[in-house]
Design a protein that fits this description.
Layout (H helix, E strand, L loop, with lengths): L20 H12 L3 H17 L5 H21 L16 H20 L3 H9 L3 H6 L5 H12 L3 H20 L5 H22 L12 H10 L67
């Protein structure tokens, strides 16, 4: 039992007595049926590959990034971390690295086939963990191959037996009208992810050592996250504050000079009744004179 694997579905397993391939498949079986996102990610992966194969060199371009994204998802789920349905496309954040790794792996396997297929078997054993090494923090393409081979050292025959059991398991799924592959293939990848963590713990390198910086992916997400626009209007989800901050004192805008006063004259008093002035009386106005 490895201390750093405490709390994981395979915390009680030990590699001192060999690789428990059947037990890893059993543990992966339980993980597969406990999270529907495992199946959905593999289904989307398969459909994208089928669509890309209709385009010239399409599958050659997208297979590497998709394999990296799927390996990252499965490595997270066996570590009991939350996975997202769009996490399959995280491999495209390292498009250049994953594409070059896939092409280099293809060339190495082709060279192994030329060596009477024995070389291809040996290379597939050495580099079984390259995708998990990359998504766990390694950014050097060749070092991912070197570190995968270093993890396998001393377990060559056990890894070969593990791959044979995994192959028979997938062949059984293929016999079920090919539909069973959609169950056996994800379970096989989950078992490989568990074995990768066991190998790291057994070698004393650890799955959370600085050499394998899984926080790189979170930094990539944070760097590409859209910035929040300024809030206009009331903030509905703001946290309440215990004490309101003091209001600033009003600004006293006093004039530099006192305004000049305007002298208003007193109002003119108008008498209530005014008599008309008496004019001179003429001859016609004398009442004593009569004609």
């Amino acid at each position: 039992m490895y201390e750093q694997l405490k709390g994981l579905p395979y915390e009680d397993l030990d590699l001192n007595d060999g690789i428990p391939a059947v037990e890893l498949i059993k543990r992966s079986w339980g993980v597969f049926f406990s999270d529907s996102a495992v199946f959905i990610n593999f289904l989307v992966y398969f459909l994208i590959l089928m669509g890309a194969s209709a385009v010239p060199m399409g599958s050659l371009i997208v297979t590497g990034p998709l394999l990296a994204g799927l390996s990252y998802q499965y490595l997270k789920v066996v570590r009991r971390e939350k996975i997202e349905l769009n996490g399959l496309f995280d491999g495209f954040k390292l498009f250049g690295i994953t594409l070059a790794t896939y092409l280099l792996f293809g060339l190495i396997m082709f060279g192994g086939v030329l060596l009477c297929i024995v070389g291809a078997i040996v290379f597939s054993i050495w580099y079984i963990f390259i995708w998990y090494v990359i998504v766990d923090g390694e950014r050097d393409i060749w070092q991912s191959f070197v570190k995968s081979k270093a993890l396998v050292e001393g377990f060559g025959w056990e890894i070969f037996l593990f791959m044979v059991i995994i192959g028979l398991f997938n062949f059984a799924g293929f016999l079920v009208c090919f539909v069973g592959v959609f169950v056996t293939a994800p379970i096989s990848m989950l078992a490989t992810a568990m074995l990768y963590d066991l190998m790291c713990a057994h070698k004393g390198r650890g799955i959370r050592d600085p050499e394998y910086i899984r926080q790189y992916w979170e930094e990539q997400r944070a760097a590409q996250a859209p910035t929040q626009p300024p809030v206009v209007g009331p903030i509905l989800d703001a946290e309440p504050v215990e004490e309101m901050p003091p209001r600033p004192a009003p600004i006293d805008l006093k004039p530099e000079t006192a305004p000049t006063t305007v002298q208003v004259p007193p109002p003119v008093k108008i008498p209530a009744s005014v008599s008309e002035p008496q004019g001179e009386q003429g001859d016609d106005d004398d009442p004593e004179r009569t004609t």
